Amino acid sequence: MSALLKIDGLKKRFGGNEAVSNVSFEVNAGECVVLAGDNGAGKSTVIKMISGVYQPTAGKVWMNGELLTGKTPEAVRSAGIETIYQDLALADNLDPGLNLYLGRERTRKVLGLPFLDRKTMREDAVEVMKSLGITVPDPTAPVREMSGGQRQAIAIARAIHWQAGLVIMDEPTAALGVPEQREVMALIERLKKKGVGIILISHNLPDIFAASDRIIVLARGIVAGERRPAETNDEEIVRMMMGATL
Amino acid sequence: MADKNGTSLLRSLFNAWSWLFLILILGFFEIYAQTQTGSTFLFRIYNLQSISVAASQILLLALGLTLVIVAGHIDLSIAFSTGFAAVIMAMIIRAAGPDAGWLIVLLAMGAGILAAAMVGLVNGWLVALLNVPSFIGTLGTYGIARGVALIAAGGATVSIRNDHARAFGNGTILGLPIPLVTAAILALACHYLLKHTRFGVHTYALGANRASVERAGVDVKKHLILLFLLSAITAGIGGLIYTSRFSAGAANAGEPILLYAVAAVFIGGASLTGGQGTITGTVIGAFIIAVIQFGLVFCGLPPYWQFVAVGLVIIVAVLVDQSKDRIVGGRS
Hints:
heterodimer, A: 2 domains, 8 helices, B: mainly alpha, ABC transporter involved in vitamin B12 uptake, BtuC, two-stranded antiparallel sheet, 77% helix
C-alpha cells in the first residue's frame, strides 16, 4: 500500500541557521501521526513546508503520489491538505454555515441577483458537524458563542467538507479545558474512521499517547526516533525530545 | 431554558434600542408640540421633508463608511471627498455658462464622482498596499482633498446658476425630495451588498479576524481598496447633491456632516473594533440625528444645542453596546 503523504529528506535553512536538517516520514490514510518535540525542534517548520508556506531548501513532499514541492499554499489545499492553526482562523461574528463556506459561499439567484444562501450553508454545517458527533445548539448564532471544542469542530468540519485527505492540526488542545480536550480527541478518532490522515503537533504527553498510531519525535531538526504508543512510554519519549537519539 | 429565552429577549431589546430611541424622541417632540404650541411635529409635510433631507445628507457620507467600519477601518477623508466632488461639479457647470444643458450637468456630476473616487483609490492604496493605519492615512487624505479643493476653487465657494442642477437638488419624485430618493436607492444597494453578497460576508469576516478571510483565499488587499472606493463615491454623491441643492460648490461642504456620519454608524450598532454594524442601523442612526437637529430648533433652542445632544447620544450608544456585550454577548 502506498502512503497518503510521503516526505523525503526535508531540509530548511534560514540564513546560517538550519531549522530542519533531515526529516522523512509517511502518513497513511486513516492514521494519526503525532509530531512531538520540544520548542525549536522544527515541528512548525516541517508543517509549513508541507502546507506550502515555506519552500524547503532540499527534500520533497508527495500527496497521493503527486509532487507538492514548489506549489503555493492554495495549490496544496486543493491537493487535499488542510491545516488547522492554533487560532482556528474563524470569523467569530459569523454563524457556523458562513464559517464553513468562507471564501466559497453559496448563492442563489433572486430576480437575477445573487443572494447568499444562508439556509443551505447552515444546514450543511449542521450536517457536517453531526457527522463529527457534535450538535450545534443554535446554527444561527455567531461562533463566538460556542465552546472551544465546538469551535475546533467547525475548523475541522471546514477541512473535511472540502474533501481533505490529510488534516494537519497544530496544538489543537492547547487552549482548551479538560472536557473540551476530550471532545477534540473524540473528533480525531472520528476523522480517522472516515479515512482521513492526520498529523498532530503536540507536546502534551497524554494527548500524544491517546491519539496517535505512531509517534515521530523531532529534536534539533532531525527525526530522533519513531515509536508506536504501545511500544514506548512517557519517559522514553521525553528522553528523545531532549535530544538523546536512540 | 427559561434563562435562554430571557437572554434572547434581552438581546432583541438591545438590538432594537435604536428603534426604541428614535420612537422615543419623535414622541417627545410630538408631545412638546401638542402641549406647548398646540401644533404637530410629526404630521406636517414640511417637518418631515426637512428631517429626511438632513438625514439623506448624513446618510450619503455614512453608507460607504458603514462598510469600511464593519471591516475594522475608518475613513475620515469622506468629508472632503464630498467637498472635492461638489467643487469640481460646480466649476465645470460654471465654466460651461448658465445655459449649460442636461448633458453638461451629467458630465460635471461624473467628473465630481471621479474626483472623489481618486481620493478613495489613494486611501485604498495607503491602507491596503502600504499598511498605513486607516485613521492616519485617511486623516492625511482629508487634509490633501481639502487643500486641493480649496486651491481649485480659489478659496471661495463656487456659485452656479443652472436650472437643471437646481431641479436635481430641490425637485421631488412622487412627492419625495430627490436627495431622499438618492439616499434611499444607495442605502438599498449598500444593504444588499453588506447583507446578501459574498463581498458583505468577507467584509464582516475581515473586521472580526483578517486571518480568517486571508486563509480562505480572499484577496484582502483588493477588498480593502474597493471598500475605500465605495466610501469615497457615496460621499462624492453627497457632494453632487450639495452643489445642486445650494447652487454652489464648497470645499468644506462635508465638514460639518463628518461627525454626524460617524455618529450615525456607531449609533446604528457598529463597533470601532470592526465586525459589527448594519445599513439599517446606520439609517436609523442618521434619522435619530436629523430628528434631534430639527427638533431642538423646532423647540426654539439655539441650534448649537444639537452638538451637545448628538455628542450625548454617541456616548449613550457606546454604553449600550458595552453593556450588551457584558449582559448577553461574549463566550459562554
